[in-house]
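Dear Dr. K.,

Following up on our conversation at the group meeting, I've run the structure prediction for non-specific serine/threonine protein kinase from Ceratopteris richardii. I'm pasting the input sequence below exactly as I used it, so you can double-check it against your construct before we proceed with anything downstream. Let me know if the numbering doesn't match what you have in your notebook.
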Amino acid sequence: MVKTWAEKEMRNLSRLKNAGIRCPTPILLRTHVLVMSFIGHDGWPAPRLKDASLSETKLRECYLEIVVNMRLMYQKCRLVHGDLSEYNILYFEGHLYIIDVSQSVDLDHPRALDFLREDCLHVSDFFKKSGVSVMMVRELFDFIVDPSISDDDVDDYLEKMQLKVLSRDGGPSSEIDVAEAVFVQSFIPRTLDQVKDYERDMQRIASGKDTEGIYYQTITGLKEDLSGVRLVPSILEEACIPDNSLRLPTSEVNYKGDEADRGDIGSSGELPSHDESEEDDLSASDSDSDGNPDQPSKIDLKLDSKDARKAHKKKVKEERREARKTKTPKAVKKRKKKLAKEKKR
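The predicted structure tokens came back this morning:
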């Protein structure tokens, strides 16, 4: 049994190391003996997070670092620590090192989500007692398991979540404590096959009553109302809603929406230059489908819903796509000009 645990520790440490998570480096495994790198200075081991004397600012940095590492363990290593707390985290040279991963489990373990909620609870309790404003256990859990959060969106997500947490400080803690206790003890389906009555849950959410116990939206990649697949985290969707008073020329909206989607904006943040034919195409898309020249060139961005915004964006892209089909390539235009000059000579 001890030999098996040593092998498991070696394998899990290697997975953490490959994902870029700070941990001891496994060096050699011989029967039940595992040799790994020493975390410390001159024979003095690095302190556990529990014993480290840190400022409030540093504790906040450590909180953000550990929640990102928990997400990396889940998303990249496909592991749940299973016993993560201030006792199994070392503080060394300004960073956190995760240790004791022999009991960590794969995501297909029947109790993986239970262990993950316990890890979230232990981490949140420690930093909360240390004076750090932390996410609710469910918010931290959702951040870790949400498949719609890309690596590039992690910083933005945490920034928006921090604002949400700060705005909640001083609120009714008793309600939060009850919600936390219910969430920790509730069953969370990992797949839709484990959901008993999907349609009933949709009706409950639509009515806005008795939604307690419906916690599987994030882990299954669904929207909060279960209406479809979630492509962007809800907290980032809220941040992307345009101001109702904002009005921009259609051509500018086309550039920012269509060009940004293709990644054509340069590192300076400026849009690439376009030749005259492209400007003609854009002005054509500004007019109505009947080619009415009196159609104004500005559009109203007071879109009532996310679906309306998506439909508008899709329409603009289709117009640009059709315009590009009939547009003369820039190279062809240059070639024609060159031939015309040669004929004149």
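Two things stood out to me. The first helix runs from residue 2 to 18. The beta strands are 26-30, 33-36, 40-41, 44-45, 79-80, 89-92, 95-98, 105-106, 247-249, 298-300.

Best regards,
J.T.
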